[in-house]
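Quick one:
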Amino acid sequence: MSLLALVILLAQNLGLGKAYPWALLPLDLGRWVWVGVSLGVVVLLAEQAGLVRLGRTWRSVAARAERVMGQRAALLALLAGSALFAVVSTNHYARFGYGWPWLHLALLAAAAPFVRRDRFWLSCAVSLGLLVASIVHFPLTVERSAALPGLALAWDHLATGKSPYALLTLGRARAWTLPDLPGMFFSHGPAWVLGLDLRWNQLLWRLLWMLGLGIALERLPADSPWRTVAFVFVLNPYFGFRHDLQGEAFLAGIAAYQALPRWRWLSLPALAWIHPWAWVLAPFLALDWLLSPGQTPRGQSPHSGPGAPRLAGRAFARQAGGLALGTLLVSGALGLALAPTTAGATFLRAVFPTGEPLRFDYGLTLGPLADKFGAGDMLPYVQWVAVAALALLALWRRWREPDGRSATEGVERLGLVALCVFVLLNPGFEVSDWLEPGFWILAAYTFGEAGAAGLTRRNAALGKPAAKRV
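Output:
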């Protein structure tokens, strides 16, 4: 899975849309190059789902990619990419007031001598500093992205008693409806209340998920591939290039979900109200939660002995009740907050727009292939059929292997595969769609390994056998 995560993250820096070099290839070859790469990702996903078995060659390729990306030269290349993107942004968006990114360049030059694979906190400081530099040099403009300006205008509406999901006028009298779920909308409240650029709110959420991820990384073995993936994500040039996106609260929610397993009854419903990607994973994660005995840290053995069925039944009932209560609390709180504006009846029209034209950035997507054969309009149906098929596969495997953590971990892994398939088939694909799935894979495996390592240490201290790694 680490190779898949690296491919997802690195591909973002090459699939930058029609204004960048892939579009210069003749006969639309750039599009078909990406379709070929996307089909390769399908093979990797099939392997993760246990549907195919790749040979030693693929495994050696994965190990080599992890070694290469963990080297200092690769990390410096990521910094150079961030510098290049900052300059490109200045040139490309100068007409919107983008200034020369001297703060970006100074920060990257100062950090370059010290960046190493074992200095994760330094890379976090660089990422946070680049976001601050973007706030200083790059103004928010709807001509580039309506995400944060739209959220600010929606908060203006709410402050005057209007629905944040009513039609908004952005730039050049363009009618626009807020496409974000209520959880994402309310996550930007602090910066708006303080009258700040909403990216300061993003900075806060980024700091929180980095703290959680960094603490988990400290528990991993020195040779864990997820240390490399974490560096690639945090220093990903595309991550800094899209300083105007709104998804940091979702990343913080993912980190909280993985770091606090006993609170998943509340964090899972919260994630579902922040980003639609969570809707794809929610059935798998709910199954994982309900079937994990007592929701102990990952790697702990299930209940055993004569009373195991009764204890497992109680754990299931307790966790099912907790999940229902969490859903009721989160939904009720958001419903009460939006009730005065009657927004509850309108936001679903925003997140499920109809009549939207097909659009595909260059990148990891099979949309152009479906469109080529006249099946583009079928993509939404194919997406959910694929997710349902993988959910059934997870249930079948759980029925075949009812006795351990490998079964529940397999459920979550199939959920991550389902999310990646969903993005590959998305009829409105944008390169930024891969940021959240890439982070979810990273967080799931990082926190999972950290939990298993912690359990092994505790068992060793108590003189128990080490937990078996799956």
